[in-house]
Design a protein that fits this description.
The protein is of the alpha/beta class. The chain has a domain of 146 residues: Rossmann fold. The chain is 34% helix and 20% strand. It has five helices and six strands. Strands 1, 2, 3, 4, 5 and 6 form a six-stranded mixed β-sheet that branches. It is elongated. About 6% of the residues have low confidence.
């Protein structure tokens, strides 16, 4: 009787051990270990792209000589040429031009010596007939624009010239009607001569007006 009891206890103990072993294998086999790799952070100054330095603007002070007492040129010619030249110079993106008003060449040289960076431009309206010694008949004359470019600080004349485009009176090639206020000149010829003068001034600095300019 005792022998049967011991055998039954042994069988029960063996069964319990087997069940615990199987349970342990299931839990061990089902568990997984995940490994996370951290990305190292880079510590240091951020690099920023440098913006290109804008090109310095060419500064111009432009004046015109209107003190010729022996000239029959109407005053509006001086003002119109000065305005048109400055407007044309300003069409170049790297040029800043402003008016010096009435200014003969001596005034322009003195002004240039007072400047540190701004160049001075002196304009003159010249009579083609008078300069060539010809007599003006029937108030028919043609004009040209002279320009002189003067260096800042030194006051030295760097370049000068005259436009090939002449300013002519209305009625050229036909009958010119008299005017109480003096001769009337072609607006088109005034504009074209002004554009040429400005372009020649810019050309001395290797600057050209951008394509498609509306002026």
């Amino acid at each position: 009787m005792k022998m049967k009891f011991f055998i039954a206890v042994a069988i029960l103990f063996a069964s319990t051990s087997a069940l615990q072993a199987q349970s342990g294998r299931r839990s061990t086999g089902g568990s997984t270990t995940s490994t996370t790799t951290a990305t190292p952070s880079v510590v240091g100054p951020k690099t920023t792209e440098k913006k290109p330095t804008p090109a310095p603007k060419l500064q111009l002070l432009v004046g015109i000589d209107r003190q010729d007492a022996f000239s029959n040129v109407p005053y509006y010619i001086y003002d119109t040429v000065l305005d048109n030249v400055i407007r044309r110079l300003g069409e170049a993106e790297i040029v800043f031009a402003n008016s010096g008003g009435k200014m003969n060449r001596a005034d322009a040289v003195r002004a240039a010596k007072q400047e540190k960076a701004r160049w001075v431009v002196s304009l003159e309206i010249r009579s083609i007939y008078a300069d060539s010694g010809r007599q003006v008949k029937n108030n028919q004359d043609e004009l040209a624009v002279d320009y002189t470019v003067i260096e800042p600080e030194t006051g030295k004349i760097k370049r000068s010239g005259r436009t090939h485009q002449h300013i002519y009176q209305n009625g050229r090639g036909g009958v010119s009607l008299p005017s109480k206020n003096g001769p009337v000149y072609s607006e088109y010829s005034i504009k074209q001569a002004s554009i040429e003068a400005a372009d020649r001034i810019l050309g001395g600095f290797d600057i050209t007006v951008r394509e498609g300019s509306q002026f």
